[in-house]
Design a protein that fits this description.
The chain has five helices and five strands. With 127 residues, the protein is an alpha/beta fold. Strand 4, helix 4 and strand 5 (104-107) form a beta-alpha-beta unit. The mean pLDDT is 95.
Length: 127
């Protein structure tokens, strides 16, 4: 049996038009930041790594708790994470990779190709 933990590590207020592509609304929204921990297999698996405290301070993230701290609260030491599945390479899904020093990171080949190719190098894509 598997257990999946949604570990919320921070939040930030913004507007819909700042977050959703081609959204004209200036309605306020709150972004909630999560990593996911999967237990029950031969070893714990982390989905996304979140980001570090410096990123949180720089981007106005409220109620930040390190994803490594949250994983430890569930009973798994951060260096016991041997596999992290990275959904995509946006800063809030990947910038915390150093918090899990023993992890091997699995990232889709097409995701890497995008960010290392001409489109990913465009200034407006850098965050």
């Amino acid at each position: 049996m598997y257990e999946v933990y949604a570990l919320k590590y921070g939040e930030r207020d913004t507007t819909a038009c700042q977050f959703f592509y081609r959204e004209p609304s200036h309605e306020p929204i709150t972004l909630h930041f999560y990593v996911w921990l999967i237990l029950g297999g031969p070893y714990p698996v982390l989905v996304d790594t979140g980001f570090r405290e410096e990123d949180a301070a720089q981007r106005g993230i409220r109620d930040y708790v390190s994803p490594a701290t949250l994983v430890a609260r569930v009973g798994i030491e951060p260096d016991a994470i041997r596999l992290a599945l990275i959904s995509h390479l946006h800063w809030d899904h990947w910038a915390g990779h150093g918090l899990f020093p023993a992890a091997e990171f699995w990232i889709q080949r097409d995701e890497i190709a995008f960010w290392t190719g001409p489109a990913g190098r465009r200034r407006e894509r850098r965050a």
